Amino acid sequence: MEEKKKVLVTGAAGFIGSHVAKRMLDLGYDVATIDNLSTGYRSNIPEGVTFYEGDCFDQAIIENLEKTNWSSIIHIAGQSSGEISYDNPVYDLQTNTQSTLMLLKLAQKTGCNSFVYASSMSVYGDRLDSEAKESDQVSPKSFYGVGKLASEHYLRIYTDYNLTCTSLRLCNTYGPGQNMENMRQGMVSIFLSQAINDSHIHVKGDKDRFRDFSYIDDVVHAFERSMEFCDNKYRCLNVTRNIKITVEELVTEIRNLFDEDISVRYEGSTPGDQVGVYGDNTMISKELSWAPSVSLREGLQKMYDWAK
Ligand SMILES: NC(=O)c1ccc[n+]([C@@H]2O[C@H](COP(=O)([O-])OP(=O)(O)OC[C@H]3O[C@@H](n4cnc5c(N)ncnc54)[C@H](O)[C@@H]3O)[C@@H](O)[C@H]2O)c1
Predict the structure, then answer these.
(1) Do 64 and 197 fall within a single domain?
(2) For residue range 268-280, what is the model confidence (pLDDT) as tens digits?
(3) Residues within 6 Å of ligand 1 by CB
(4) What spacing in Å lies between the alpha carbon of 80 and ligand 1's midpoint?
């Protein structure tokens, strides 16, 4: 019997990583993960995934993984909030950027074909006048965005070492499985959790800020398609719906899910918060034949049904 191809999906105890790891298992891959359980839960790791507990920048873990011929590495682990990157910028660099570099070295050493990275729309900074395109100038506003951008450049350079690399610039991703207890990451999960628990939403920041929102299944699909490339090209792709949604519009959509009245208060702010960004998705639709399939209303309903 032919041996199964091995895929390393980092961060499979977290929201996006657990969904991607599950999909890889369903596709018949032998899947492993590294996770330090800083924001993820062991119980999220799909059954059948080999689990290495620790940091992606831990030399001992990386050396252990050098014994395996990885077919693909999908690097999703990382701290995922601009706000948190201000608590300890040096740790942010280590956990989000040094990790990427060490995993790229691992990929190169083990003859890996493709490397896919969970980057972020935060690399653009604010884009107030039009949708962000991959060819646009970037100007991250937070340490988090700087680390994501640096990681992207490491991927671009590693493409010269016979490795096909793709950076996926994810916009706000939401859906079942998102951590509903962590009140410092995930706009949808924070507001929905507050609405369910307190019948009240407290928004830290202006109601006119805007974002683009992707449902988890669409994001998983983008990872799946990206790992299929094996042509030694570097790609950087927005994973977006190209729809500008203000915070106020999002809050209204969430309130509409409930029979009871959900009150709202706009007060405070968070460091490094973007005023607004949403993204053109022409490039990903051409390169991956990818198109978002779940509307915000439909996706919020699915998440609400799950969270309740
Ligand atoms: N969720 C979004 O809206 C969004 C948007 C853009 C980019 N991203 C990126 O996608 C990735 C996943 O986000 P998520 O929403 O699933 O977050 P998450 O917090 O649910 O998952 C991240 C996982 O990585 C683990 N982790 C963190 N640092 C680690 C390290 N140094 N070594 C090993 N494991 C580590 C955590 O324990 C967790 O299980 C992150 O890199 C994030 O920056 C997410």
Answers:
(1) no
(2) 988 878 899 999 9
(3) 11, 13-17, 34-40, 55-57, 76-80, 95, 99, 118, 120, 170, 172-173, 179, 186
(4) 5
